[in-house]
Amino acid sequence: DKTGYFWGNTVIIRFSKDGTASSPITWNTSGTVILDEQNKGTSPKCIWVDNGDYNIISGFIVQNADYGIMVNVDSDNNLISSNIACFNSVGISVGGGGSTQNVLQSNYAFSNSSYGITVEGDENVLVSNLSYANTGNGIRMGPNVSSLTLSSNFSYGNTGQGLHVWGPLCSFKNNIIYSNSSYGIEVYEYA
């Protein structure tokens, strides 16, 4: 059962169904699919995973939205991979409402007016993502984060920090962060 649907004039695709660990719901483009929210309603999102577990979202280009891809409200164990998020306010956002154990892998987030990638929630994993030329931070971990793993990510050329950390117990390995206008890495008081 693959259920995604159009949500009025503010969301192009909303996922709220659960797959399982052995049988995730897979949304793969098998080609170039551009989701463009230009001139759509208020607070537009291209892809919104809302209370959906074990979804795989791969291969989309999302642009011109408040959120290119948003995963929130108890959405767990999702894989967001090989997507391009550009010209949004926030490229890719995971968190809010306790979303945990999601994996962001091999995504590109660039030219977003706020953050390239932002994460809240526990035990999420970011691996091999590229976040650059964003007006705000390249990668931001909010105050409700713990046990986050970041490995082999690139964050460069952002106006804000390359990596902004608020949460405790985060693991960083083999990330490359350079040429950001503010700090390369900023660890905030809650970390």
Q: Any overview of this molecule?
A:
This protein is an all-beta fold and 191 residues long. The chain is built from no helices and 21 strands. It has strands at residues 4-7, 11-15, 25-36, 45-50, 55-63, 67-72, 79-81, 84-86, 90-94, 103-105, 108-110, 115-119, 125-127, 130-132, 139-141, 149-151, 154-156, 163-165, 171-173, 176-178, 185-187. The strands form 2 sheets. Strands 3, 5, 7, 8, 10, 11, 13, 14, 16, 17, 19 and 20 form a 12-stranded parallel sheet that branches. A 9-stranded mixed sheet has the order 1-2-4-6-9-12-15-18-21, with no helix packed on it. β1 and β2 form a beta hairpin. The N and C termini lie far apart (41 Å). 41% of the residues are buried. Mean pLDDT is 89; it is low at 1-7.
Descriptive labels:
globular; mainly beta; 0% helix; 191 residues
Q: Secondary-structure element order, as H and E?
A: EEEEEEEEEEEEEEEEEEEEE
Number of helices: 0
Largest sheet: 12 strands, parallel
What general outline do the C-alpha atoms trace?
globular
* Amount of beta strand: over 45%
Low-confidence stretches: 1-7
The percent of residues in helical segments reads under 10%
The radius of gyration over CA amounts to 15 Å
Taking all residues together, what is the mean pLDDT?
89
Number of strands: 21
Distance linking N and C termini: 41 Å
Structure classification: mainly beta
In brief, what are we looking at here?
With 191 residues, the protein is mostly beta strands. Helices cover 0% and strands 48% of the residues. The chain contains no helices and 21 strands.
